[in-house]
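Troubleshooting: if your tokenizer reports a length mismatch, compare against these two reference records.
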Amino acid sequence: MTDDIKAKLGEYRDSIDNIDAALIYMLSERFKVTEKVGLFKKEYDLPPADPSREQKQIERLRELAKSAKLDPDFSEKFINFVIEEVIRNHKKIRKG
């Protein structure tokens, strides 16, 4: 591998690293807010899951993925993973 190729690959990888860091910070902010939602739901005895809201989110994010030229199936798998984690956290909050 030439030095030019190594340098270009390094640039790409640096960009990927920056994007990964941004994703982690964005997820952290999202989970801070969903924790507040979990506490709110506990206070008002609301269920940890809201299937109607979750389905609307999935549909909305699938459309966003299409417009962003991202595979909508991937985006759905990703948001389902996030939703499952949020519900798990809400159940944990509910138990105290």
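Reference record two:
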Amino acid sequence: MAVIPRISHGILSLSIDNKDSLYKAYMPFVTNGGLFIPTTRTYQLGEEVFMLLMLMDEPDKVPVTGKVIWVTPKAAQGGRTPGIGIQLSGDDAALVRKIETYLAGAMESGRRTNTL
């Protein structure tokens, strides 16, 4: 059995400083929750990623691990922002609750996000 090396892109960083940006980045339809990270780097579906998230007025960056489940390539139709959607790990349940608290009342608004 051959060992396939994983490509490491280093640590991603995402800073979300307002409710509108959080709404556009959050992917509530993903099991365990998900986040869209704008990037022009190339990622493959299923690839593991590590990110430091600065969320709203939280004093510390939150370390987040996830798996790439969405890719919006450069020059995507409709002027979509290039980036990746990551599925959060089950260990990030507290982060998901915090995000959903920030977005209380906004998640059913039907406004456009970075993924849908």
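Descriptive notes for reference record two:
- The first helix runs from residue 19 to 25.
- The radius of gyration is 14 Å.
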